[in-house]
Amino acid sequence: MTSQVRGPQLARLLGQWHALPGRRRSPDYAALAGAVRGLLADGRLPLGVRLPAERELAEALRISRTTVTAAYRQLRESGHLASRRGAGSWTMLPGTHRVASTGLWTPLDDRDMIDLGVAALAAPPELLPAARAAAEDLPRYLSGAGYHPTGIIELREAVAHAYTGRGLPTSPDQIMVTNGTQHALDLVLRLALAPGGSVLVEAPSYPNALAALAARRARITTHGLAVEEPGWDADLLLAGLRQARPKLAYLIPDFQNPTGHLMPASLRERVVAAAHAVGTDLVVDESFVDLPLDGTVLPPPTASFDRHSRVITIGGMSKPFWGGLRIGWVRASAPQVQRLAATRVGVDMASPVLDQLVAVHLLAEAPAIVAARRAQLTVQRDALLAALAQRLPEWRVTVPHGGVTLWAELDGPISSALARAAEEVGVRLAPGPRFGLDGTLERFLRLPFTLPAADLAEAVGRIAAVRYDLDRGGRSRWREAAVIA
Questions:
Q1: At what angle do helices 453-472 and 366-391 cross, to 10 degrees?
Q2: Distance (Å, whole) CA 117 – CA 431
Q3: Which of 47, 384, 476, 485 is deepest in the core (most CB within 10 A)?
């Protein structure tokens, strides 16, 4: 059954739609249609939802029905609305669009778009030689069925060796290979979290992890991160664990996504101890652990403080190598890995053997590949910081010493409006509310530095121009909320 949004509900979502950029240059119906497209673009208005009747929306917005009729017509013409006589109108997207990795919708032929919604690098040059070598290794697996629920032994040995090299002794029996880090998280949640279970997460946090938790109907409590380093308030985080006593806590201690913070060793140890005391399992996402910059020394892995199998670590190849190589893993106790494998059989059986062989060859070259990645990211990060300092000096940015993103505090709660305006000038952004649960974080914006320096500088220039236009376009000034006692 198609869900429906009522007139007052859509009016509340639209907010100050009159104040959108360009309103003075466009009629009301065009501004209204643009506002609805903006809601679809940032995910606040779902696809396939039935919109209110024209008369109902006109009454809710206190405008003429003619304006709503014209706006709906423009949305139908642009492919964002489908209507059928007697059945109403429901939201959709044009057939020439696809879902981007950010959850936003991307024109297939939009080659001039600078995409700052994706925090991932292009493939390294070593990928093709690794793929050729993997193809040569493949014949020895062809006589079998090809199903390896925990992963082929060569890859599990390579991943275990990497953990051991970081000071966390690990055997292949403690490794399960997955189809990316997101898949690893999904499997862990299927095993360890009953529907409706309680989970503690950081705020902000990784949007796709929040989506996975929502799919499990998790009851989420958040621990807010500060803009400045180290980000985590130790007393508040530990108190949150003790008071909420969640079944799981999902944390990104190594160059946290999106803030770039690095959790100190002392807090890692205290978090593990507190989790054990209250019966909480920790899911630690190490997606960015291979990418310290500026000679930053990494603290010991969070799992190194674990003596009671409370820490489940997930990681993968996407960030240091390539997102198109869908290889991730789970590090846990051997019995937990076997239970994960049993859970996996009902999902996807196993990861592709050829992809795993490619990963084996890339991991063998990891020191050289990762060193080049770090040098590349350092140059690009510095270029992004310089462009922001020159063009948007009012924004507050903490320099990240690792990972691939920085978290900018803007000069007003304008993140979603800025993202909509930037889309019009060829820059795709991931606004702050995408990294939270309740529509907050409008003062923040995640900016990855995974594109070439020239593209980053160009993107900041375009963002600065539309930021200026937000004020020139007659946007209402933000005021402090009045105190009502």
A1: 30
A2: 9
A3: 384
Helices of type H across 294-414: 334-344, 353-364, 366-391
Cα–Cα distance measured from residue 472 to residue 452, given in angstroms and rounded to the nearest whole number: 31
Q: Is the pLDDT of residue 55 over 80?
A: yes
Structure tokens at 213: 């938790």
Cβ contacts of residue 86 below 8 Å, gap of 6+? none
**How many other β-carbons are positioned within 10 Å of the β-carbon of residue 13?**
16
Q: Average pLDDT over the chain, rounded to whole?
A: 89
pLDDT tens-place string over residues 324-381: 999 999 999 999 999 999 999 888 989 999 999 999 999 999 999 999 999 999 999 9
406 — phi, psi (to 5°)? -125, 155
33, two tokens:
């249609």
What is the DSSP secondary structure assignment for residue 226, as one 8-state letter?
Answer: P
pTM: 0.77
CA distances from 416 to 285, 392, 443, 458 (A): 27, 17, 9, 20
What single string gives the DSSP state of each residue in 153-197? HHHHHHHHHHHHHTT----GGGEEEESSHHHHHHHHHHHH--TT-
Question: For the chain, what percentages of helix, strand and coil (3-state, to nearest 5) are there?
Answer: 45, 15, 40
Q: What's the half-sphere exposure (Cβ side, CA atoms, 13 Å) at 22?
A: 17
| C-alpha R_g of the chain | 24
At residue 42, the pLDDT reads 65
CB atoms within 10 A of CB 446: 26
Cα distance from N-terminal residue to C-terminal residue, the chain: 43
- pLDDT number for residue 23: 43
pLDDT at 473: 57
Q: Please report the sign of the dihedral spanned by the C-alpha atoms of residue 52, residue 53, residue 54, residue 59.
A: negative
Q: Please, where are the H alpha helices in 49-180?
A: 54-61, 65-77, 127-137, 153-165
Phi, psi of 288 (to 5 degrees): -110, 10
Angle between helices 353-364 and 153-165 (to 10 degrees): 30
| Nearest-angstrom CA–CA distance, 206 and 202 | 9
